[in-house]
Design a protein that fits this description.
8 strands; alpha+beta; transmembrane helix; transmembrane; membrane; single chain; two-stranded antiparallel sheet; six-stranded mixed β-sheet
Length: 134
C-alpha cells in the first residue's frame, strides 16, 4: 500500500487518543487524525473506532478518546469508589475488523498469468458444457 501525502493533508482535524495496552497495564497518548467516524494512525497504518464513546477531559491534552491498542475498539471508562472499569461496545463484539484489512482484501492486484489461466479454464468448461448438451 502506498501513502498519498495529499490524502493525509486533506484529512480534517487531529484528535487526541489514549491507547490502553493489554490488561490496561500500559497507556499511550497520541495525536491521530479523524477519518469519517474512525480514527486513523497513518504512521502504523492502523484504524481505531468507531468514535462513539465520551471523551476524558484532560488539562494537558484536552479531550482524550480511549481505545484498545490491540483491537482498535473504543472503550468506555466507568469509575466506582476505588476501581476504574474499561468496557468495550457490546455491538462490536466479534465484529472487530480493521477497515484497512477489508480494503486490502478487495483491492488485491491480480497477476496477468492468473488471469489468463482463469480465462482458459472458463473457456474449456464452457466448451465442455456446450458439447455435452449438443
Amino acid at each position: 500500500m502506498t501513502l498519498n501525502p495529499l490524502k493525509i493533508i486533506r484529512k480534517a482535524e487531529p484528535i487526541n487518543v489514549i491507547l490502553f495496552g493489554r490488561d490496561a497495564s500500559t497507556c499511550d497518548i497520541k495525536k491521530l487524525r479523524i477519518d469519517g467516524e474512525f480514527v486513523h494512525d497513518y504512521a502504523k497504518d492502523r484504524t481505531y473506532g468507531p468514535l462513539r464513546q465520551p471523551a476524558i477531559l484532560s488539562e494537558d491534552h484536552g479531550p482524550l478518546y480511549p481505545f484498545d491498542a490491540d483491537t482498535g475498539a473504543p472503550l468506555w471508562i466507568t469509575r466506582s469508589d476505588d476501581v476504574f472499569t474499561l468496557k468495550t461496545d457490546p455491538r462490536l463484539m466479534n465484529r472487530l475488523i480493521d477497515k484497512r484489512m477489508l480494503a486490502d482484501a478487495v483491492n488485491r492486484e491480480v497477476r496477468f498469468g492468473a488471469l489468463i489461466l482463469t480465462a482458459i479454464t472458463a473457456f474449456c468448461v464452457g466448451i465442455s458444457v456446450a458439447l455435452s448438451i449438443g
